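Researcher: Here's my situation. A collaborator sent me these components and asked whether they could plausibly form a single complex. I don't have experimental data yet, so a predicted model of the whole assembly would be a useful starting point for our discussion.
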Amino acid sequence: MNYREDIPSDVDWSLVGYYLLFVFFGWLNIYAAVYDASLDQNIFDMSINSGKQLLWIATCAILILIIMVLDHKFYEQYAYLIYLLTIALLISVLFLGREVAGSRSWFEIGSFRLQPAEFAKFATVLVLARYINEPGVKMELLNHQIKAAILCLLPVALIILQGDTGSALVFFILILVFYREGMPPFLLIVGILSALLFIFTLLVDKYLLTGVLISIALVISLRMLFKKLRKKWRKIALVWLGLVMVAGVIFSVDYFIHQILKPHQQNRIKALINPEADPLGYGWNVTQSKIAIGSGGLLGKGFLEGTQTKYDFVPEQSTDFIFCTIGEEHGFWGSFLLVAFWIGFLFRLIVVAERQKSKFSRAFGYGVSSIFFFHFMINVGMTIGLFPVIGIPLPFFSYGGSSLWSFTILLFIFIKLDAHRSQVLERI
Amino acid sequence: MENRKYIILGLVILVGIIFLIKLAQIQLFNEDYKLAAMDNAIQRLTKYPYRGLIYDRKNRLLVTNKPIFDLFFIPKDLRVEDSSKFALAIGLSKDELRLRIEEGRNYSMVKPSLLQKQLSFEQFNTISSMLVDYPGVIVQPRTVRTYPHESAANVLGYIGEVSKKELDRRKDTDYTQGDYVGVSGLEQNYETVLRGKKGVQYVMVNVRGVVKGSFKEGKFDTTAVAGEDIVTTLDLDLQKYAEKLMEGKIGSVVAIEPSTGEILSLVSSPSYDPNLLTGASFSENFAQLSSDSMKPLFNRAIMAMYRPGSIFKTAQALIALQEGVITPETRIACIRNVVGCHGAHTILDLLGAITNSCNPYFMGVMRRVVNRDQSSNPFTDTRLGLEVWHRHIRSFGLGGTLGVDIPNEKGGLMPSVRYYDKAYRGRPWKYSNIYSISIGEGENLVVPLQMANFACILANRGFYYTPHLVKGIGQDKKPVERFTEKRYTTIDSAHFRTIVNAMENVVRYGTGSYRAQLKDVVLCGKTGTVQNKDKEDHSVFIAFAPKDNPKIAVSVYVEYAGQGARAAASIASLIIEKHLFGETKRKWIEDYALKGDFK
């Protein structure tokens, strides 16, 4: 191994710039969220989240250093090993983890807490990219799609077992990687339609929805019946087969929500549909979050001047609801900048992913982009009432060591891979 | 495949645009969230002013404030483990407690709701140590009125929660729901003086209602200004004594200092303990008092209207003297064909007629006032005469309210030309139709306060000050201006001498001689016996003393107690004696009055 070769020579500084920007402003906002004027704590105070976050940021510098000096081939080579280790961690946390609010997803060693689900993200993306890059694997083929899907769904199953549905949902976004690497578009459409159907199932009574769908199927089959069509009966049968499948989805979603989800998760979904129905009960989070953001106006109330977040009206204001602090204190102007920078960041990730010569790096890049995209979409979406309250962090902004580590690892492995893109031979 | 990146980029852009639209909608185009945020975090705390105190004329406290404690709770923080124990401690049933908590939850999870109001200092002491175990309970100290002497309930009045109607009426002022406002007596009349000015403090609170600091450095805060104290004209000793004398009787006592119009005592009997209408059991007690058949809340001294009875004869005499239709020497025969009379006399002069309360005499007197052949038509003549009479009688403060400084004063009735026109519905009337007012029967009505004021007029020989209950307001004890104004009657003071001499005679030799006479001072009085159909008469007496330079004038009404010479004369003379000498030397009269059996 040539030492010189592994010093990153072509780092994408714009991604690094986004990273530093996000982490820095995230840190300031964590301070704003927990700031209490009467206690006169400064931002470095180790007893509050901003002080602790600074410690996590410092450790990230070490992580980045390690990622940068490791051989760029290391990640592809050891992808399976890393994946298996992570799976092992996910299994052992089920037995050794500490139960917090109904989920058993944390390891606790002294005051140090670690969430293996966070690390499953990069491990899964790594293994997916590795699989896609295997010789002979074609994502156009159902066979290979299923194998890849199994790799992705194994951690999902384990994370659901831990009771952390929010983190488990993240993995479904990897369908974008499948799509980019050759999966037929109709599967993506089916995926999106399923998600839409899921939401409709929440909004509309299941019998009514099924009834409407049956009528649509009837109309279509009647029209087919009176038209001259080849293989008419087969096509009509297909319509009804589709209907049965959709109805199956509707009823299983209903079953899933009412039988499998825990009450607090059910409530989060109900709050999405109609937060005003019970603004003090399960709609509390969403209502307060919207009040905080809405009260920011155009220019916001100013740094450390937010009343809603500072006085604890918004729950989890330094972790999952960190966006409220930005919305309240920096107004629409601040929110606009945050959204714009995030879109810019995601664009840059995709552009960089596209310029990779190896399928591995490109798939990994898309995996990273998809995961950031999902987090951004769900996290900001839930604070402004567009998505149910799914407890997932806003990368780099939300307080929390495990997630900061996990996102840093994801991003910097990709930056590392990208820095060596010219040294990789493209496999055809 | 590479083109698929555009689809993915498109998705990213789509999400970004949706977010910005939604953000613009809630941050730029919807004010509701800003209001909700203010509502969440900024709490308006009212600083209640200390209500002014009320003193008697010798600076003894009649009304003061005592601390009580209202309990509030914040539903989000309330943890009650043993609810039956907690309910018991704050004086609620378990169901009531549950109901209140539920109501509070429905109102707001983060804003305080009322749990229990008006815990006494003692109650609060017993639970204060327990409160640590009940997070989410907030204590709000407040004050309520208290009356150390349990006296003069109807004068002092009471305060109560401002009603919805009152709130609408007083829109301009700063009353809000739940505020206390004077609803009767001095508390109502001097509300603006006593209440002071509320202060406001805007504070920032967190989600648990904990105050985190002032809003904009207190720029919008104001301090509470305490209400002003009031010194009343009441003499507590005299008031208590009069109340004691009236115990078990129905009626009223009004005592006024003639030289100032200051009301020394004003009693309506039966009365009540004013402390009943404060504190937690207000509504319960109020319901009981207002449904009491004896009407303890009805202030008879200013609201009960009676026919004046024989007292009125003195007024008739004064008017006749002023009009020059009689002289003190005028004699009129006691012919008892139209009205009856009492005692053995045939033809008396004015002095004798007053002393013996001769009915036919005064019927004749008023005829002379009313019918003076100014018109050949006897009907027109009576109209002209009654107008003259009415002008005089109104100058005595009769037939209209005097303007005393407690609410709901009644004005009585002195029939005018218009009144009779209405009563006879256009049919003609003349003196023979209306003569009964000449002896204080018939259509005329007076209230006890007016009669006491009339006694003042006699004592002052022709003028009065509006009777009033407040001597001074605030630190420099500023008097109320309209009460310092001398009001003259239409009668020359020379004519009063005759009447006063007659009133002296009443007590020395006449109807009032036995029970009203005092040894060391000349007391002038006039008995009255107001006839009631099928029932015992009302006993009435007005008096003042000493004859020269009078210090006190009194009217006493005792309902259904027979002749004025008995119950009313005894009580009136005892009150005068008490005021002048501090105690009575006539124990037997006091016992007689206290016993209350006047038949």
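Model: Some features of this prediction you could bring to your collaborator: Chain B has two domains: 51-232, 236-273+298-595. The domain at 236-273+298-595 of chain B is CATH 3.40.710.10 (Beta-lactamase).
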